[in-house]
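Hey, quick one: can you model this chain's 3D structure?
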Amino acid sequence: MSRSRGGTPATTALDRAGVTHRVHEFGSDASESDLGYGRAAAAALGVDEDRVFKTLLVSTIGAIESTGSQRPANLGPHAVAIVPVSTQLSLKAMAVALGAKKAEMLAPDEAERVTGYVVGGISPFGQRPATRGVRPTVIDESCSKHSTIFVSAGKRGLDLEISPFDLVALLEAVVAPIATTR
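Sure thing. Here's the predicted structure for all 182 residues.
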C-alpha cells in the first residue's frame, strides 16, 4: 500500500480505506499535447492506453424502474463513467447500465463544479459528495483484463495504480460494456 504524502482527496480516500495502490507522478504538460490528458499520461507512464482509464461525468435523464440488473440503487442527477483512454464512452450503453432513458456528457465546467477537480485531473475517488449519497459509477468491463489499471489521482500529472476489483468495490461500481473504439 502507498501512503500518499500531502496528497489529494483521492489519495486520502484510498489511504483511509486501506486500499493497496501506487501513486505515479509525471509531467502534466498534456494540455499542450495532441494526445489529450489520458493518452499523454499513458505515454508518460510507459503503459498501454488500455490500462489508463479516464473519469467522465454524465447527467441522467428519465430514470426507469429497475429490472433486477446491477443498476445503482441511488440514481441521482449525475453519474461517473470510467473508460480506457483508448476508447470513447457510449452514452447509450451508459444509460442502459444506469437504468436511465438517456445519459448526456456534462460540460467541462459543470464536471469541475460537481467533482471539485479540474478537467484532466478528475478522479473517481474523493469527489465532492453527491446530493443523494454515493454518485453512481459505471466502469467499462475491459478493466477486468488487467491486474492493475491507472486512474487520475485528483490532479493533472498524478495517477493511481489500483486493482480494478478494489476500484469497483470501493466505488460500489457497476461493471458494464460502456466503451466504444474510436
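One thing worth noting: The chain has one domain: 9-181.
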